[in-house]
Amino acid sequence: MTRLAAQLLATALGVGYAPIAPGTFGSAAGLALWAILPAVPLVQAMAIAALFAAGSWSGSVIERQTGRRDPGIVVIDEVMGMLIALFMNPVGWRGAFVAFLLFRAFDVLKPYPARQFERFAGGIGIMADDAMAGIYANVALRALLAVKLGNWVNG
Predict the structure, then answer these.
(1) Contacts of 50 (CB under 8 A, 6+ apart)
(2) Residue-number span of the structural domain to which 81 is assigned
C-alpha cells in the first residue's frame, strides 16, 4: 500500500507515465491544480508545503524502487514548481501560460543554485531544484507584470 501511495503521489496520479515530456505534462497538472485551488495565499502556501513534503517522501520511495536518481516518472516536483511560479501573482490564463513557459525554461536550464539543489539526497533533491525554478519563474513573471507587458499578461 505504501508503494502504491508513493507511486500515485510521485507521478501526480499517473501523469508521470506520459510517454513523452513527462515533466511538461507534470507542469500542466500543476497549472490545472492552480486553476482549482482557491486564490487564497494561505491555501496556496499550504498546498506548496504539502506537495514539497509529499514529493520528498514519495520521490525517495520511487528512487529506491527504481534504483535511479530522480526518475522521469516523478513529476510531483513540477506540479509544486508551477504553484510556486504562480504564487501570489495576479494573472489570468494568459499570465498562467507565461508562468508555464517561464517555469519550463528555468526547470530545464537550472540556473544557479537550482542545479546544485539536485545534489541533495533522495526526494528532497528532486523537489528542491524545481522549487528554485518555480521561484525564478515567479520573480520573472513579477518583472513582466511590472513593465508594460502587465496588461497583456493579466488578460
Answers:
(1) none
(2) 23-154
Q: What is the mean pLDDT of each run of 10 residues along the chain (155 residues)?
A: 89 94 96 96 98 96 89 95 96 94 95 85 92 97 81 57
* Counts for the chain of helices (H) and strands (E), in that order: 8, 0
pTM for the whole thing? 0.93
Concatenating the DSSP letter of every residue in 66-135 gives HT-SS-TT--HHHHHHHHHHHTT----HHHHHHHHHHHHHHHHH-TTTHHHHTTSSHHHHHHHHHHHHHH
Is residue 72 one of the residues assigned to a domain? Answer: yes
Q: Work out the angle at residue 17's Cα, subtended by the Cα atoms of residues 53 and 102, and round it to the nearest 5 degrees.
A: 65
What is the domain count for the chain?
1
How many other C-beta atoms lie within 10 A of the C-beta of residue 126? 27
Query: Exposure string (b/e) for 50-85, b if CB count within 10 Å is 16 or more?
Result: ebbebbbbbbbbbbeeeeeebbebbbbbbbbbbbbb
Q: How far is CA 45 from the centre of its chain?
A: 13
Residue where the block lists cell 511590472: 146
Does the residue 103 lie in any domain?
yes
